[in-house]
Each structure stands twice: as structure tokens, then as C-alpha cells.
Design brief:
heterodimer; A: 397 residues; mainly alpha; MetI-like fold; 2 domains; two-stranded antiparallel ribbon; 19 helices; elongated; B: 307 residues; 77% helix; 0% strand
Amino acid sequence: MSISDHKQKELERLSAILQEAHQVQGVSLWTDAWKRLKRNKAAMFSLWSLIVIVLLAIFTPLLPLQSPTYQDVKNRELLPPQMESYSLGIKEYDQETERLQTEAQTHAYGSSEREALLTEVDARVKKHPIQLYWLEPGFISKGMISLRLMIFGDFCIPSLFGTDKLGRDVLSRVFWGSRVSLACGFIATFVSLLIGVSYGAISGYLGGWVDNLMMRLVDVFYSIPFIFIVIFIMSFLSGPDVREVLNEYGVGQIHVFFLLIGAIYWLTMARVVRGQVISLKNEQFIEAARTIGATRMQIVFRHLVPNVMGIVIVYLTLTIPAVIRFEAFLSFLGMGVQAPDISWGLLVNEGVQVITIIKSYWWMIAFSGMALAVTLFALNFLGDGVRDALDPKLKNK
Amino acid sequence: MQVLTFLLKRFGWMIITVWIVFTISFFLMRQIPGGPLNGERVLSEAVRARLEARYNLDAPISEQYFSHLWNTVQLDFGPSFKLQDYTVNEVLAQGFPVSVALGILGMVFAITIGMTSGVISAVRRNSAYDYSFMLMATLGIAIPNFVLAAMLIVIFVFNLQMFPAAGWGDISQIILPAFCLGAPFAGYIARLTRTGMLEVLSNDYIRTAYAKGLSPRTVVLKHGLRGALLPVVSYLGPAIAGILTGSLVLERIFVIPGMGSHFIEAAIQRDYTLAMGALMTYTVLLFVMNTLVDLAYSIIDPRVKLE
């Protein structure tokens, strides 16, 4: 009797503890950081603006914009910002083609008039303005463009940002340029992440002379002015002979460019990750992994790397704006993205080139420059916010 | 003595760094198709042979490497490929002082503007001054300097006509580029000064200084600022590297005949010897500046050990 009573009591006590444990919600590093980030109004505002910017960039082909590449020097050279509507003229073109086609039907089969009209129809189909409006869009962009044509037809947003020296719409160029600039930011940062995290983690985990050698190498790299070397390399890559070689392998100059930028921005990441790994590698969970027979590489990439992600993310938020700025800087110098590709740096460069004593075409600089500045501004603010939110010293305060 | 060993050690590392940069760029130059002689003009065999002999391009690559290396050690970068009649040394000697003047002025702008606004922000914490200065600092950091330069040209040169558009030699011609060059770093320095200042001003010895009746000005400038200088000095290293890169763009926008313009021009024109000479100069410059910054740091803060 007393024993079962005792048991009953014990059971109640345990279930009470269990219940209490259920009520206490564990706070992971991420939910905690997110909570703190949500309180930071500037950072949240930046986050939302960035989400909007990225979405706009992704869905640019869907928007009723004018062509970013179609040149009309005669009628539309350097127009100031305006509200005048503009039509793509595809519908008219198609109607004209159809009219010619039906006219061809009226002539006798095999007659010379009919043949002439049919060749004209053929030529018109081949030279369809769509091919001039969007140069070699990718598979997905192509789909989005045709969807856009289905929804909006010939309608275009007027040239709110003016037009450039070749009569191209600046608004549309700023939108299309955002795709390259942002893609560069993310791809190059991803490359730097891969290199930096693996290098730092391996160096930190192996320790000893390997670590010493690897870090000495990083020290040497630190004092190499890579920016100048990249300019050097880009100047070779822009040569026609090299471009041919690259095209043979199916890589564009722009891809090499992305990789290059990523390949020079990994040094700080490697140092930070190494420091973090060294402080973690003697923890018990690593010991535990070793006892169950995990290999070195498994320990590094399955157990150590996930635990340094917090600090890695903090550095990512600093790297992305740095990379975007660097891309803009190089494209501005004519060493980065090359026409017909568009990026924000390239647009600012085009703007600077048309500045003359007689007239300043301010719209060519102001809008692309502002797009760049707003994005970098938001990324900086978000980066500061993320750093504050993830800083372990501030945790639970 | 400690300083001497430090300098010697640094010198050794500098030699290694410069050698690595030299080797990387030398082989990049030679390995990639499209040499400096493959211009728009097709050269006849005889002319090509003579040009190759002049630039020592006909020797085997290992011999070219060592002779080029030996010349570089003797600080002789050879004749320029594209600027005929000039040696690289002459071109660099012309551009170097210009770039240095621009860089120093930009740095002076950055430090004076940055530290002043940083100190004011810290002393008047959470005031309208503080907020507006910090907003401006973040703007300065976020806006790339070439965008800033382009906007300022449109406003100050064309609309207000306060400054000439481009060129070099006059005081009024240097103000705008130097300001644009220093602006991002002024932003960083302002933020660093503010944080450092806030930390220092909460220390006990500041309270003591007030308690013994010193004027607020003396307390802030004499006791506070000294402590707040440390993070700023440690930032000077990256700032100098940034000023070097920034000068590339600004010299181009404002058509200043400095080393940056020459380097970019050389890179575009594939003038290998000139690009190489400029690259070497930049590497050495960066290394020397970083060493000086480290030295300065150990002087301001005796706790820091030179390694």
C-alpha cells in the first residue's frame, strides 16, 4: 500500500516536471536572434525593402517595361524623364504581317507577286521585334516575357527615368541591371562562403603545422592588392581571343567575373571560421562524434561547420554589399560586366560619359546611382541589425 | 630594438608578397593569348621581330622571367608598350606625386570630418546632431564614391558652377575629388569615433576629470579623445587600401593624371610593363602603409606588442 502510494507520488512529481518542461519553450539561437531583429525597426524596414528589390529583380521580365536594349537613336536620344506613353508596337507589326499574308493568298498560286509577298512575310517573321527587344533571354526569362506579352500586350510604362544616348529606356535598364548586380552579389558571396568556410574549418580543425602554413598564406594574401590583380585579369579576359576560348567552354566572361570576385573575398571569412572552430573543437560533442567513429571530414563539415553558422551569417551580411559595390566599381571602370549585359555600375558609367559642359543628363546618373545606393544602404542597415541580433554577448539581454 | 626586428620581419614578408604578386601577374600576362603586340594593326614580320626583341619577348619564358625579375629588383620596369618614348619609371614618377597628394588630402578630409562629427555625436548623444551625423555617415558608407562624384559634378560643377569639372593643378580642382575620395572613410571614422568615445566617456577617470573641475572641452578633447583614437587608428590600414582603390575611379572621373589613371589605361590598353610597374608600386605602398599603421598603433597603445 505504502509502496504504491510512494510510486503514485513519484509519478505525479515526474509528470508535473514533464508538464513544466512542455510549457517551457526552448529558445534556439535563430528564434532568439529573429526576435531581437524584429525589434530593430531600421533593420526590419531594410529587410522588407530588400525583399521587394529582390522580387522586382527576379520578376523584371514580367513587368510591363520597355525593352532594355532596343536602340532608337533617331527619335528617342537622351529624352528627359516623361509621362508620354510608349507602345512596343508588336501588335501592329503582327497585324501588318498578317495583312501581307492574306494579301499573298489573293494572288494566284506560284505567281511572282505571291512569292515576293511570302518572302517578305518570312523576313518579317524572322526579324520580329521581340528578337531586338530582349537579347538572348534565358529559358525562364523567355517564359516570363511571353507571359508579360500575354497580360500587358503592347503596353509599357512610359520612360519615367528618361532615355540614354542610344534611345534606350533607363527605367527598364535599371530593372534589368538589378538582376546582374544582385546575382553577382549573391553568387560571388556564395563562392567566398564556400572557400572561406572550408579553408577556415579545415585549418582550424587540423591545427599544427598545417594550420600555421594555411594561415601564413592568408596573411600573405591579405597584403596583396587583389583589386588591382582582378583589374589586371579582367583586362586579359576582355580580349577577343580569350573570349573565344571561353565561349568554347560555354562560359561567359561574366561568370568568370563572378567567380573571381568570390575568390578574393574569402580571407576574412576563413580567419573568423578558423578562430571559431578552434574554440569549438575541444567541446564534448566533437569528442562524442569521434568516439562513434566519425571521420575527420565528417566532424568538420557535419559537426563543426553548422555550429559556426551564426558568425558566418554576420560576415555574409557584410560581404554581400561589399561584393555588389566591388562589381559596380569594376563595371564602372569598364573592367566588369560588358555590354550588352547591364549592371548598375555600367549604367552609372554610361551616365558619367554623357556629362558635358553644355548639358548634364542628370537622369542617367541619378536613378541608377540611387538604385545602387538604396540597395547598399539597406544591406548595410540589415547587416548591422543582424550582427547585433546574433552577437552572443548580447544574448538574453 | 624591438621596433627594428619588427621592421626587418615586415620587410622580409614584403619581399615575399611582392615576389608572389610579380610571379602571378607575370605568368598571367604570358599565358593568356592576345599579347600586347596583337593590336588592331597587323604588324609585318620584321617589325614584330624587332618589337619582340626590344621588349625581350623572343627569349624562352624562363629567361624572360628571370631577366624581368632582375630588372624589377633593380627598380627598372622597362619601356612602356603603348606610351612610346616613355619608360614605365618615368610615367610612374609623374603620376605618383599626384596620386599621393590626392590620397593625403582625401585622408585629411576623412579624418577631420569623421572625427569631428563622431565626437559631437558622442557628446550630444541621442540629439538631433547625433542622428543626422550618423545618418550621413551611413549614407557616406553606402553610396559608392563614384556615384557620389557623379552627383556632385552635376550639382556643383554644372548647376552651381562652383568648381571646374576636371583637370589638375589648381586648388579648386582638387577639392571635389578629395572630398569624394574621403567621404566613405569619413563615415566609418565618424561611427568608430562615436562608439569609442561613448565607451571612454563612461569610464571612471572621466568622472574624476570632471570632478577636479576641468572644463568639459578639456575633458572631452584631452582625456576622452585619446582613448577613442585607438579603433580609428586600427581602421586606418583598411582605409588606406580603400583610398588607393578609390583613387582609381576618381582620377578617371576627374581626369587627374595620377597613377590610378595610368594603371587603368594600361590595363585597358594591355600595356603590360606599365600595368606591372603600377601593380608593384601599389603592392609596396600598401605594405609600407600597413606597417606604419601598426607602428603608430603600438605607439598610441603601449600594451600592443609588435609582432
